[in-house]
Amino acid sequence: MRFQTKMIVTYTVFILLVGVVIALAYYGYSVDRYVETEEKNLEVAAQQVVNQINELIKPMETRTRYILSDSEILDSIRLLSVAPQSDIDEAYLYDARDTILRGINIDYVMNDFYRVVLFNPGGDVVSSRTPPPLATRSVAEFEEMPWLAEADATKGKPVLISAHEDTWGVQSRPRVFSLLRAIQGSNMGYIEVQRTVESVADAITLPGENMEVLIFVNDGELLYAGGTAAQPAAYWAALAADGAAPVFRAEVEGAGKLVATGRSAAYDVTVLVAESMAHVQAGSNSVAPITVGIAIIFCVISLVFVLVASRLLTKPLRQLREVMEHTRLDNLAQERRVAMPNDELEALSLSYQNVLGRLRESIVKEKQASLLQVQAQFDLLQAQVNPHFLYNVLNVIAQRGLKNGDEEICDLCASLASMLRYSTNTKQRYATIAQELEYLGQYFYLLKSRYEHKISFAVEVDAEIHGQVIPKIVLQQVVENSINHGFANSTDHMHVRITGAREGERWIITVRDNGQGFAPGKLEEIGAQLAEAKARIAQERSAVELEIGGMGLVNTYARLYLLFGDSLDFTLHNCEDGAEVLLSATWNEEGMDDVPDHGG
Fold first, then answer.
1. In angstroms, rounded to a whole number, what is the distance separating the alpha carbons of residues 555 and 474?
2. Domain of 149, in residue numbers
3. Can you count the helices (H) and strands (E) in the chain?
4. Where in this chain does the record put each HAMP domain (predicted)?
5. Phi, psi of 189 (to 5 degrees)
6. Does residue 545 surpass a pLDDT of 60?
7. What is the pTM of this model?
8. Is residue 179 included in any domain, yes or no?
9. Do residues 222 and 162 make contact, with C-beta atoms less than 8 angstroms apart?
10. Other C-beta atoms within 10 Å of 187: how many?
11. How far apart are CA 101 and CA 81, in angstroms?
12. What is the DSSP letter of 136?
């Protein structure tokens, strides 16, 4: 397939994918904005209903205040509260009831409220609705009014009573809601102002035809349910489960609802305005045709641009291809320039020239590398000859010792040969802790032969960690550092103790001596060297081990860090009677590919 064709196909697929992604993103964004708009509309509608219901309740509260602020009415209420009333002239009682009736039976009350009732425990009832069919009971049925206890508890504050059947009606008992206030004083009674539930429907207007409204009072008591709202208990349960979110989603009768809340702190009224999620989804679907149209326009314009641009871009590339096809090893030194119409393709032509120059340099370097590889192989063979020579010399010494009846010389030569064989084995760079302890035992034997009773060792390493893999000659290097530096200026008895165990997911080995410890400032110096080695390992991991050089603590740390990384804990510190080196890392008994089956 031609490059131009590939370019067109590639960018066509890319444009289609981008078009789909943009269309989906735009559709998702538009739907989210539509839903957010609906949520805002519901919030506004809920607050609007809160204001409207407040406008219904506030005059009811105002009316109770007006009645209680009228001194004549209040004196009449006090007179009726006196018990027994048989001690009072009936004319006075009649005047008191008439005064109360005139105070509440005015046009404002008649037109604005369904009923205003004053009653007391003594049986007096004065109502603004007396003619049929709105006649009022002359006796209060207290057992039908359980909310009186709540009114008494509020000590004169108004109590809003949810929708209920009118308890005062004689011929007609419509559903009403009330504002009740207990009059403070002994047997003073109560004032109840009623509105019909139908008046709520008349007062509430919603901006959307498909919206449902529910009004609750006193933490869940239904006052009004309008529209197609059903299952008010389910709405209230969903509100309680969702918390104080202004808008939430609920499942009511198997249908999804988007619900906004509004609250009136003055009257403990909660308004829920809901809309069916199906209706919201249907409205958001109108975004789909616009999204498809935008995606089609974008793809068409982009494809036309790709066709034109591909023809212009591929012409100089074809010229460059022709130059490259005529490039050979015998004409690498010749400069071949191609006239390019823009800086990018000009840079490509220059890059091709640079590639030719680097190719020439690479050919020279490859020849040099071949020579170096041959030299390295020769050095490796030479290095393998030297250990064999040492083995032969040790065998000769051992035979001479055996000939002279000195078995100790034979044992020393055997230990030294075993250590030499272990340390010069270049095929394996890692060993288990068990193999390291075996190698350390040979080293201890040689040291004991040298220092005799002046040195002693103790090895207490749990068998559980013997299978852990570590770099070779780590433990011996730490012990050797303790001997060489811990007892450099001391003639006291030398004791080295090696302990090891597993703690959780980590293995731990400590090497402790009774020497003179690290010199002042030495710990800081070694710490700085370890930090430098760690930084160099992070930057030059492949060659840092060779560059550090030596077989001291820094080299030991570097080799451990290369194997265990940041899980390594390499700690040095002084004790009361010497120094201690702690090695620890994450437990891993899987091993390395180059660990031998035995110590040799």
1. 9
2. 70-201
3. 16, 17
4. 311-364
5. 95, -155
6. no
7. 0.48
8. yes
9. yes
10. 15
11. 16
12. B
CATH number of the domain that 573 lies in? 3.30.565.10
Q: Which residues contact 373 (CB under 8 A, 6 or more apart)?
A: none
Domain count, the chain: 2
The residue type at 211: M
In a domain, 15, yes or no: no
Record the tokens describing residue 599, joined without a space.
């110590």
Which stretch of DSSP H or E encloses residue 74?
helix 71-80
Q: Which residue has the tokens 């809920």?
A: 46
> In this structure, what are the phi and psi dihedrals at residue 597, rounded to the nearest 5 degrees?
-80, -10
CB 49 within 8 A of CB 203: no
Q: Rounded distance, CA 155 to CA 167, Å?
A: 23
User: Which of 167, 201, 235 represents a domain boundary (last residue)?
Assistant: 201
Q: Which two tokens stand for residue 180?
A: 């009740």
Q: Which strands make up the sheet holding 159-165, listed edge to edge? A: 125-127, 115-119, 190-196, 175-182, 159-165
d(CA 227, CA 531): 75
pLDDT tens readout for residues 288-338: 787 788 888 888 888 888 888 777 767 777 667 777 777 766 666 666 665
Q: Where are the beta strands (DSSP E) in 419-518?
A: 430-432, 455-461, 469-471, 494-503, 506-513
User: And the tokens for 230?
Assistant: 């059903």
121/29 Cα distance (integer angstroms): 64
- The CA–CA distances, whole Å, from 113 to 61, 169, 217 equal 12, 14, 19
Neighbours of 370 (CB within 10 A): 10
Chosen domain end from 185, 201, 217: 201
CA distance 138 to 124: 8
pLDDT at 5: 78
Calculate the CA 105 to chain-centre distance. 66
Angle at 165 between CA 161 and CA 170, to 5 degrees: 125
Residues 35-61 pLDDT 10s:
888 889 889 989 999 999 999 999 999
Phi, psi of 131 (to 5 degrees): -70, 150
Q: Are 586 and 506 spatial neighbours (Cβ–Cβ below 8 Å)?
A: yes
- Chain length of the chain: 600
DSSP state letter for 465 = G
Please report, for residues 76, 423, 523, 551, 573, the alpha-carbon distance to residue 442 in angstroms, rounded to integers and kept in the order given: 117, 12, 29, 18, 27
Query: Which of 599, 560, 563, 555 is CA-nearest to residue 582?
Result: 560
Distance of alpha carbon 322 from alpha carbon 317, whole angstroms: 9
With beta carbons less than 8 A apart as the criterion, state whether 551 and 473 touch.
yes
Q: pLDDT by residue (tens digit) across 469-517?
A: 998 888 988 988 888 877 777 778 889 999 999 999 999 999 999 888 8
Residue 221 lies in a domain: no
If one counts every other C-beta atom within 10 angstroms of the C-beta of residue 416, the result is 19
CATH number of the domain within which 87 lies: 3.30.450.20
Distance CA 500, CA 374 (A): 45
Q: Tell me how far apart the alpha carbons of residues 98 and 493 are, in angstroms, rounded to a whole number.
A: 120
Helix, coil or strand: residue 415: helix
Find, among 179, 392, 348, 204, the residue nearest to 268 by Cα. 179
Look at residue 113 and tell me if it is in a domain: yes
Q: What end-to-end distance do the CA atoms of the chain give, in Å?
A: 61
Element at 256 (helix H, strand E): strand 255-264
